[in-house]
Amino acid sequence: MRAPGFTGGLLDRADYLRHDDIGLAAAQGDWRGRLLKLENFEPELAADGLLSWTSMADAPESAELVLLGLDTANGNRPHFAAYIPGMRAPPGRSMRLFGLLDQFAPGEAATYAAARSVLDWHSRHQFCANCGAQTRMFRAGWGRKCDSCHAEHFPRVDPVVIMIAEHEGRALLGRGPGWPVGRYSALAGFLEPGESMEEAVAREIFEEAGVRVSGVRYIASQPWPFPSSLMMACVAVAEDDALTIDTNELEDAIWVSRADVQSVLSGEPGPFLAPPPYAIAFNLLTAWANAA
Amino acid sequence: MRAPGFTGGLLDRADYLRHDDIGLAAAQGDWRGRLLKLENFEPELAADGLLSWTSMADAPESAELVLLGLDTANGNRPHFAAYIPGMRAPPGRSMRLFGLLDQFAPGEAATYAAARSVLDWHSRHQFCANCGAQTRMFRAGWGRKCDSCHAEHFPRVDPVVIMIAEHEGRALLGRGPGWPVGRYSALAGFLEPGESMEEAVAREIFEEAGVRVSGVRYIASQPWPFPSSLMMACVAVAEDDALTIDTNELEDAIWVSRADVQSVLSGEPGPFLAPPPYAIAFNLLTAWANAA
Predict the structure, then answer these.
(1) Is B273 a member of any domain?
(2) N or C end: fewer C-beta atoms under 10 angstroms in chain A?
């Protein structure tokens, strides 16, 4: 299987430096250090799809540094992203960013995903959810600490199930309100406290499409940095193909054949537009279409 | 496979009522409604392992109600848990709760897990992480809203990878500092922003034990309500069996044979104490021991 989008990062996260103030200070003071170039949370890509970096001296005075990791292939050169107080990710993705997402060189999208999710989390978590006081960055940017009530907070990762129900050789796809014309994809939803991945898959398919499933099979996962999901892709077996669509969630849902999915994924016209290759729906549909 | 602990809940979460103020008010006013009995976040179990419930009239004046779901097998009778301002889960689990965990009737532990995770989340998230103002419960208890900056907050679920590295028929187990004498289990750690499940598995095994792995296979998942993890159990193939233990994370790590794991799981003495049956490590070890 093609590696899912936003995976394959090449930096070593060097977790140990998050607990080592002296080592971290040395990394921050390393003249070889690299700072991720971001403008409004968007990266700058070179023609070869590599992320652009600058010198640590370019960080504004107010910047707080997040250690993205060490480049172990190049003498452990430290790589950082700058949180700048007041920075705020725009809602949704810009057309420019959309256009970049399939141009990353291998591994670069993963580095960007980590940086974007963590910076965005800092921007929306300046205060302590436990007591309301202001918090401060700690653990090299991988946490925030409240000096008032001593609570420690860590970046959120929200697990999301994304799945196909299958029934007699056909797969269930849906489209959300406002999606591009012709686009259909796997159903998806947030996993909730007190349920397993398999239970979330069954609940979401029933809620959105009225279809009962069993036999959930896990296929693959990816991080999705808008803002911080873990996408877990699954296939489940439907009891029957009658649909009861929740129109708050879905505008439409259709059953598509393996042949249709295969032709759409290979770029031929078909009953729907394929998901982009950086979305795990692409891997999920590919895995399903290629299964016996 | 035996169903993982804390799964199999029998209530319908009735997501639609979270968006329907009138329907929710009707459910709250339903004289047949049931309120989960909790004392210091701990349930009361009847002799048959069923959760104890009481009448809605027993909720204290200050209670805010979380809709756990509807009992569709009994006329959609609504079931609630009460968040009482100021309630606070004790750190860790009491000996009493420990003793209850393997006594739940099927599905009851899942209902308790959902209730505990959500109530605990409310207790530690009374303030808006975005602006510091007090927030209020909404969505039938499955969210909090800030009337100051209008941010909406939803209960956290923290994905955790828990995994065995395997090498030539042996499995890698570790023990944390302070664990009961003889207890070894699968390694585990929080998944971070910007990584897939498979990448988190490889990173954690390398960080904790110095072992490089590939070929990660997903086995099963469970919710773990202390306070709100999603445990995702995997097996990975180790490149070799040399260990470099991170003594901050692990007190010891050992390689155990399939025969050893089989005998320990069947209650025979062996080189380690088996994990409790409600922990997904039990399912993971069972799946690995029974694989060809």
Answers:
(1) yes
(2) C
Contacts with A246 from chain B: Cβ below 8 Å: 16
User: Is residue B246 in some structural domain?
Assistant: yes
Q: Report how far residue B233's alpha carbon sits from residue B278's, in angstroms, rounded to the nearest whole number.
A: 13
Does residue A152 lie within any of the structural domains?
no
Quote the number of domains for chain A: 2
Are A163 and A278 part of one and the same domain?
A: yes
HSE at residue B102, side-chain half, CA atoms within 13 A, is 9
Domain hosting B265: range is 158-290
**Single pTM value for the model:** 0.97
Of B12, B131, B195, which to mutate for an interface test with A (greatest number of A Cβ within 10 Å)? B195
| Model ipTM value | 0.97
Do both B210 and B255 map to the same domain? yes
Per-residue pLDDT of chain A (292 residues; tens, 9 = 90+): 789 999 999 999 999 999 999 999 999 999 999 999 999 999 999 999 999 999 999 999 999 999 999 999 999 999 999 999 999 998 878 889 989 999 999 999 999 999 999 999 999 999 999 999 999 999 999 999 999 999 999 999 999 999 999 999 999 999 999 999 999 999 999 999 999 999 999 999 999 999 999 999 999 999 999 999 999 999 999 999 999 999 999 999 999 999 999 999 999 999 999 999 999 999 999 999 999 6
Task: Estimate to the nearest angstrom the gap between the alpha carbon of A54 and the chain centroid.
Answer: 25
**What is chain A's alpha carbon radius of gyration, rounded to the nearest angstrom?**
21
CA-based nearest distance A248→chain B, Å: 10
